[in-house]
């Protein structure tokens, strides 16, 4: 991130130092490990073939991790030094930036006054007295002097700002040079990246680009999922984003940056993200359909229409008549195809009913907010509303299905809350308030449900979070593992 000229310098010295401390702690942990290995190597009291092999292995391992210790130690020291110098550079440049803003405003006013004073001298009538000419000339001289003094002050404070900026740039370049030296330079100690690391770096580059595309598609799908063909393409791209998280976890496990447990967790979370909400919706709709169809069968046609409505009875009969295989198939293909709501919206727009279509796409977020906060699904709320209707027949299968929908919906809400809460705590724990905005807003917008929460979280995520109060730290290369 570049600094704007004559503005406060970007960067959080606190955040840089915190990250440097993390590397230093890793280096200290490596040192403790090497001391333990030294004890094994120096062990002479035990004589056996197994112990000899253990000592050889310990010596080899110690030599390798000693090299890594230098990398982490020097990276941590470079970051801590840069953070300290950044703080000093900001102490010099930032007050200058504030002073320059103040002086520029004063200079603008002074120039206006000088121009008026000059015009007053030029506009003196031919019959003006010597006293009037002297007074006007003196006013012009004072105004010009004021402009000159302000310009001199501005030049001084520009020098102060420039000095602070140069100090920051010099410190950043030194840090980059020191880190590069231990990562790829003469102090790399033969810790060059292997084929897995190179493959991982290539994947990281591809992943960042494709993930942005998928995130953009996810936001566009909120507005355009109803459009034939285009809507399906956007939905597929949005779904691919969840799948990519699993692939990314696999790459991290292969190069030692993650574990296979993390892969399993990513796969589980991906499955929940793709199919969890649709499964809850399918269960809730089926429980509602059983309630309506079986209750209507016990009522007169007039009573059934009065209790549930003709359109509800018609739609629930279709849901009730679906086979189990069809329901499962609908859940599995749900993330990749337009929903019934999307198709209904498309029909409304084709018919010119734009207001109804928009209302269908973006329902009132405050209606049923309490139930949505608990279960995260309008379909679960609708299921409970129908089941609470007077005279509704609820058998054992309906009760079990409704319970599964309620537990599943609440479980997904709780899981999302925990994930966002942990992410928020982690970012705030290292002082990265900007990156904490996305999970924080996701927690806040979660009760709104539907497109609102996705829209808020998605847009903030694409924007890269929000800047820290003191600005994001100037990026310096981190040591590779």
Could you walk me through the main structural features you see in this protein, from its secondary elements to its overall organization?
The structure is a single chain. The chain has about 475 residues and is mostly helical. It folds into two domains: about 15-185, Helix Hairpins; about 195-460, no CATH class. About 80% of the residues lie in helices and about 0% in strands. It contains 16 helices and no strands. α5 runs antiparallel to α6 (about 260-295), α6 packs across α9 (about 325-335) and α14 runs antiparallel to α15 (about 435-445). The longest helix is centred in the first third of the chain and has 74 residues, at about 50-120. The chain is flat, with a radius of gyration of 34 Å. Mean pLDDT is about 80; it is low at about 45-50 and about 465-480.
Brief summary of the model shown:
The chain is mostly helical and 481 residues long. It contains 16 helices and no strands.
Secondary-structure blueprint:
Elements: H1 13-42, H2 49-122, H3 130-183, H4 195-224, H5 230-254, H6 260-297, H7 301-308, H8 310-321, H9 324-333, H10 340-350, H11 354-361, H12 369-375, H13 378-387, H14 396-429, H15 437-445, H16 450-462
Helix pairs in contact: 1-2, 2-3, 4-5, 4-16, 5-6, 6-7, 6-8, 6-9, 6-13, 6-14, 7-8, 10-11, 14-15, 15-16
Total of domains? 2
SS content category? mainly alpha
Give the N-terminus to C-terminus distance in angstroms: 25 Å
Specify the number of helices.
16
Average predicted local confidence, pLDDT: 79
The amount of helix comes to over 70%
Order of helices and strands: HHHHHHHHHHHHHHHH
Q: Please report the total strand number as a whole number.
A: 0
> What's the main sheet like?
none
Low-confidence stretches: 46-51, 465-481
Strand content: under 5%
- How would you sum up the global shape? flat
Radius of gyration: 34 Å
Oligomer: single chain
């Amino acid at each position: 991130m570049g600094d704007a000229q004559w503005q406060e310098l970007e960067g959080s010295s606190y955040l840089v130092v915190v990250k440097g401390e993390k590397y230093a702690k890793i280096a200290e942990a490596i040192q403790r490990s090497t001391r333990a290995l030294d004890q094994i190597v120096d062990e002479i009291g035990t004589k056996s073939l197994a112990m000899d092999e253990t000592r050889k292995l310990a010596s080899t391992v110690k030599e390798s991790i000693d090299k890594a210790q230098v990398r982490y130690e020097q990276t941590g020291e470079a970051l801590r030094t840069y953070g300290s110098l950044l703080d000093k550079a900001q102490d010099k440049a930032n007050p200058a930036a504030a002073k320059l803003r103040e002086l520029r405003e004063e200079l603008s006013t002074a120039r206006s006054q000088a121009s008026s004073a000059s015009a007053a001298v030029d506009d003196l009538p031919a019959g003006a007295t010597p006293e009037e000419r002297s007074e006007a000339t003196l006013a012009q001289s004072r105004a010009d002097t004021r402009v000159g003094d302000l310009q001199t002050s501005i030049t001084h404070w520009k020098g102060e700002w420039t000095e602070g900026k140069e100090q920051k740039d010099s410190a950043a370049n030194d840090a980059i040079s020191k880190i590069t030296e231990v990562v790829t330079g003469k102090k790399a100690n033969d810790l060059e990246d292997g084929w897995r690391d190179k493959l991982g770096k290539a994947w990281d580059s591809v992943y960042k680009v494709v993930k942005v595309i998928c995130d953009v598609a996810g936001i566009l799908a909120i507005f355009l999922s109803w459009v034939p063909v285009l809507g399906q393409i956007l939905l597929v791209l949005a779904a691919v984003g969840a799948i990519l998280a699993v692939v990314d976890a696999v790459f991290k496990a292969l190069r030692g940056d993650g574990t296979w447990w993390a892969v399993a967790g990513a796969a589980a979370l991906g499955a929940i993200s793709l199919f969890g909400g649709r499964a809850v919706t399918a269960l809730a709709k089926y429980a509602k359909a059983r309630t309506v169809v079986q209750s209507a069968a016990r009522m007169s046609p007039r009573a059934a229409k009065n209790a549930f409505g003709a359109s509800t009875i018609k739609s629930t009969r279709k849901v009730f008549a679906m086979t189990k295989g069809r329901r499962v198939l609908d859940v599995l293909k749900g993330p990749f195809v337009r929903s019934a709501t999307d198709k209904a919206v498309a029909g409304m727009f084709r018919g010119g009913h734009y207001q109804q279509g928009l209302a269908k796409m973006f329902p009132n977020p405050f209606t049923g907010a309490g139930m949505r906060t608990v279960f995260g699904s309008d379909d679960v709320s609708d299921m409970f509303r129908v089941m609470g209707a007077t005279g509704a027949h609820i058998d054992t299968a309906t009760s079990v299905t409704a319970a599964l929908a309620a537990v599943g919906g609440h479980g997904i809400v709780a899981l999302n809350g925990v994930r966002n809460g942990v992410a928020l705590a982690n970012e705030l724990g290292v002082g990265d308030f900007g990156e904490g905005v996305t999970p924080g807003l996701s927690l806040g917008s979660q009760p709104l449900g539907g497109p609102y929460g996705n829209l808020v979280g998605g847009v903030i995520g694409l924007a890269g979070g929000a800047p820290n109060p003191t600005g994001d730290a100037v990026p310096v290369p981190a040591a590779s593992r």
